[in-house]
């Protein structure tokens, strides 16, 4: 079975699915980038926010760097890492790992914005954030729309101008799949508003 990566902008009504399949033939210019698995195997929940010392800074950087690169590309200020949001995200992914088989969490009642990503393998934080940012190719800032039949919500949350901080965590499921959740404060994807 080919590795796959799904994303979900939980501050929007519709979910998005990115199926990234490994192909030997070159992909068309508008196709999603194929990802290769980083190693399978079962594992326990890995909560970036709850690791100590340099591991916390390294984990935060792994999430922050691709977020802030995407934000710089559209001229919005960088995000700061929030230990509180990372701890909250860690609790959610751990609960989903235990109770939901690493399914997406229902974040509809959350006060925070949230992006979720699921990969059939141990995806790195950078790979997951890159999949969210890749939705930007379908977003038209001039009229604040997304291409027909496409989703842009995870991208617009990443680059939402008013969002100031982020905290993220991952869980590795018994199947070797990875669930990633990033929480954003203040939330983005406000209906009728442009992200930047």
Automatic annotation (TrEMBL):
Highest taxon listed in the record's lineage: Eukaryota
InterPro entries (UniProt xref): CAP_dom, CAP_sf, CRISP-related
Domain SCP: 58-192
Entries under Gene3D superfamilies matching the protein: CAP
Residues making up the signal peptide according to the UniProt record: 1-31
Pfam family, one: CAP
Residue ranges the record marks as coiled coil: none
Record keywords: Signal
Name of the molecule in the record: SCP domain-containing protein
């Amino acid at each position: 079975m080919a590795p796959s990566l799904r994303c979900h902008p939980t501050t929007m009504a519709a979910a998005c699915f990115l199926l990234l399949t490994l192909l030997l033939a070159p992909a068309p210019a508008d196709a999603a980038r194929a990802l290769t698995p980083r190693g399978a195997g079962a594992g326990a929940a890995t909560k970036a926010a709850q690791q100590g010392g340099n591991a916390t800074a390294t984990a935060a950087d792994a999430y922050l760097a691709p977020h802030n690169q995407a934000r710089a590309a559209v001229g919005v200020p960088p995000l700061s890492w929030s230990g509180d949001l990372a701890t909250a995200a860690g609790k959610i992914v751990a609960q989903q790992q235990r109770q939901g088989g690493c399914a997406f969490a229902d974040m509809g009642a959350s006060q925070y914005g949230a992006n979720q990503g699921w990969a059939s393998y141990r995806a790195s934080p950078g790979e997951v954030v890159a999949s969210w940012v890749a939705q930007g190719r379908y977003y038209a800032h001039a009229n604040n729309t997304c291409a027909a039949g496409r989703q842009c919500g995870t991208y617009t949350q990443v680059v939402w101008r008013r969002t100031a901080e982020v905290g993220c965590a991952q869980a590795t499921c018994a199947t070797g799949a990875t669930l990633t959740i990033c929480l954003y404060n203040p939330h983005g994807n406000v209906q009728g508003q442009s992200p930047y």
